[in-house]
Design brief:
Layout (H helix, E strand, L loop, with lengths): L21 H17 L10 H30 L5 H26 L1
């Protein structure tokens, strides 16, 4: 006997919101920001090494979180069919824009 109402599969193609898949993107960007920042050499300041590494880790996590926000919104706005070359272009553009913003902010602060 056939059901009267069709059962919608869990992978349905309903339009998703601007924050679709944000968890996966956020984890990837946070890991990227953390790894890239922590493995930089420590400078010769008077601060202990662990404090410099903590500062680098916090800066990397903040960089990764901003990248995750920008990338998630851009990917869900401009690449809904998930074309691979567009995704990589958005990755590079996100990294470039956020890096310029961070470097500019650090230069203005001090």
């Amino acid at each position: 006997m056939q059901p009267t109402l069709p059962i919608k599969p869990h992978w349905s193609n309903d339009p998703q919101g601007p924050w679709y898949r944000w968890r996966g993107y956020t984890v990837r960007w946070l890991l990227f920001g953390l790894i890239v920042s922590v493995f930089q050499p420590a400078n010769g300041e008077n601060n202990p090494l662990w404090l410099q590494k903590l500062d680098q880790a916090l800066m990397g996590l903040s960089f990764g979180s901003v990248c995750a926000l920008v990338f998630t919104f851009s990917e869900n706005r401009f690449n809904t069919p998930r074309v691979a070359w567009k995704s990589w272009l958005i990755v590079l553009g996100t990294w470039l824009v956020v890096k310029v913003l961070f470097v500019s902010a650090i230069a203005l602060i001090g």
